[in-house]
Design goal:
mainly alpha; two-stranded parallel ribbon; Endonuclease III, domain 1; 10 helices; 186 residues
Length: 186
C-alpha cells in the first residue's frame, strides 16, 4: 500500500497525517483548535503552523473557548509579542471573534460539533482518490459552510480553509485509496 505523499519525509507532518488528519472528531475544543490553526495557515504552509502548534496551545490555554472569547486587544498583542505564533494581528483577533461565534453556536445547537457535522448527516464523506493530486482544494459543501460561518461572524473561513478544516476534523476522509489510513483500509 502506498500512503499519501503530501506529508513527505517531515516527521511532524507524517505524525499529523497518520494520527489526526481525516480522523472524525466531535470534541469542541479540538474542533476549535483546528479552526484556529487552519485560519492561521491561510496563505502559509501547514508545516509552519504545525511547528507553532505548541505555542498556540500555551498562548490560548489549550484552545479554551471561554478563555479565548474574553481576550482583550492588549492580551492578543501580548500573545503576538511573547509567543512563537503567526504574527498577523487579524488572525490573532479571529481567535477571539471565532470563540465568541462558537459560544453562540453552542447555545443554539448544544455544541459546535453538532452544527458542523449536520452538514454531512453526522457521517464522514469518504473519498476514493487515486493520488494526492486529485484531492480538491474546495468543494460545493465547503463553499456553503464557509458562507454560513461568515454569516455567523467567523473570520478566516474561506472555502479553501473550510475544506482543510473539514479534513482536519474528519468530516472528510481524503486519504488516497491506497493509503493505510484511508477508512476502507483501517
Amino acid at each position: 500500500m502506498s500512503a499519501c505523499l503530501w506529508p513527505g519525509k517531515n516527521q511532524m507532518m507524517q505524525l499529523y497525517h497518520d494520527k489526526e488528519w481525516c480522523v472524525p472528531s466531535h470534541d469542541d475544543s479540538y474542533i476549535f483548535e483546528m479552526l484556529t490553526l487552519e485560519g492561521a495557515q491561510s496563505g502559509l504552509s501547514w508545516n509552519i503552523v504545525l511547528s507553532k502548534r505548541e505555542n498556540y496551545k500555551k498562548a490560548f490555554h489549550n484552545f479554551d473557548i471561554a478563555y479565548c472569547s474574553k481576550l482583550s486587544d492588549e492580551k492578543l498583542e501580548s500573545i503576538r509579542e511573547q509567543y512563537n505564533v503567526i504574527k498577523n494581528l487579524s488572525k490573532l483577533k479571529s481567535v477571539r471573534s471565532n470563540a465568541l461565534a462558537v459560544i453562540n453556536i453552542q447555545l443554539e445547537f448544544g455544541n459546535f460539533s453538532n452544527f458542523l457535522w449536520r452538514y454531512v448527516d453526522f457521517i464522514p464523506v469518504i473519498s476514493n482518490w487515486e493520488s494526492d493530486g486529485h484531492i480538491p482544494a474546495q468543494t460545493i459543501l465547503s463553499e456553503q459552510i464557509s458562507k454560513d460561518l461568515k454569516k455567523r461572524n467567523f473570520k478566516f473561513v474561506g472555502p479553501v480553509t473550510v475544506y482543510s478544516f473539514m479534513q482536519a476534523i474528519g468530516m472528510v476522509d481524503d486519504h488516497i485509496r491506497t493509503c493505510p489510513h484511508h477508512s476502507a483500509n483501517r
